[in-house]
Sequence to fold (248 residues):
Amino acid sequence: MPNRILKESICTNEQIDGLTAFEETVFYRLIVICDDFGRFDGRISVLKGRMFPLRDDKLKTEALEKAMKSLVQAGLVKFYKAEGKPYLHLTGWERNQQRRAKFSKFPAPEDADLEEIPASEGNGNHLPSNDGGCGEEPAPEITPVQTPAEPAVISLPLNDGTLHGVTASEVKKYRELYPAVDVMQELRNMVGWLDGNPSKRKTKAGVRRFINGWLSREQDRGRPGQPQQPQSRPAQPASTGGNPFKRG
Fold:
């Protein structure tokens, strides 16, 4: 198995920061067992044996299942089925790892069966069972894109491909909190920045903190309510007529 790359940016990655210590350990061990395309067998029993070969008899399957669900909800892992068998894919693999092999050992997510396992937040049915995924699966629960009850006036792209809608009432609240800021223009700036930096898009849990942090920085730069005093010019000497530089 070739070496894998861990970048310094993992220390400030919001997705990883939201994990427990054990969930983070599971994620790192996933990185080293996946093939050069970021894919692996999706059966929990196989994952447990490969990631924790020295603890296989001590680690509870339920604990690993819970950790994998957290990775799915964080947008770090995607489970899918191909030809009826479960597989997984690390979603940020192409951005962070080097590909040496020409072919993957496992089917691509694009070749998934129509009944692809959804990685919906809060849906515990996306993980395969210990029978290898051959048992009867519950009907997949499709979670729609997050849409607030009030229509959004602007939407920010998230790291899982969905959108976070900002409503008019939220814009009003931001304007009250940050009176120095052109809130709508800064929200448009955020959309442009997130479009240009897809690897830095935020999670559903972290996007509001991102918005408040951005607006707070702009507020600190502006600070209205303290009108700037016009700069006074030094008094000019009264003119005595004639050329003041002419020698007497």
